[in-house]
Amino acid sequence: MEQEQISFEEAMERLETIVGKLENGDVPLETAIELFQEGMKLSQLCGAKLEQVERKIEVLIENENGLHKKPFAGANEDRGE
């Protein structure tokens, strides 16, 4: 399964499996290193996919000049409510 072609959900499932194996601690050192490297790639892939989604999510606000786009406020940002 090529990592760039997998969905966010598939990447997260694989990442959870890798974390479980590493936390279990009974894998040979070389295997643990390979799993860690794969996990890091999956983590970066998930981060990139989340950034793409965040850029796509925009809230349209109507003002006196018509419509303009406002970036979606992230979970850690103040939404002005």
From TrEMBL:
Its EC number is 3.1.11.6. SUPFAM superfamilies: XseB-like. It is found in: Cytoplasm. Keywords: Cytoplasm, Exonuclease, Hydrolase, Nuclease. The keyword Disulfide bond does not apply. GO terms for cellular component: cytosol; exodeoxyribonuclease VII complex. It comes from the Bacteria. GO terms for biological process: DNA catabolic process. It catalyses: Exonucleolytic cleavage in either 5'- to 3'- or 3'- to 5'-direction to yield nucleoside 5'-phosphates. The keyword Zinc does not apply. One of its GO terms (molecular function) is exodeoxyribonuclease VII activity. Bidirectionally degrades single-stranded DNA into large acid-insoluble oligonucleotides, which are then degraded further into small acid-soluble oligonucleotides. Heterooligomer composed of large and small subunits. Belongs to the XseB family. This is Exodeoxyribonuclease 7 small subunit. It comes from Paenibacillus phyllosphaerae. The lineage of its organism: Bacteria, Bacillati, Bacillota, Bacilli, Bacillales.
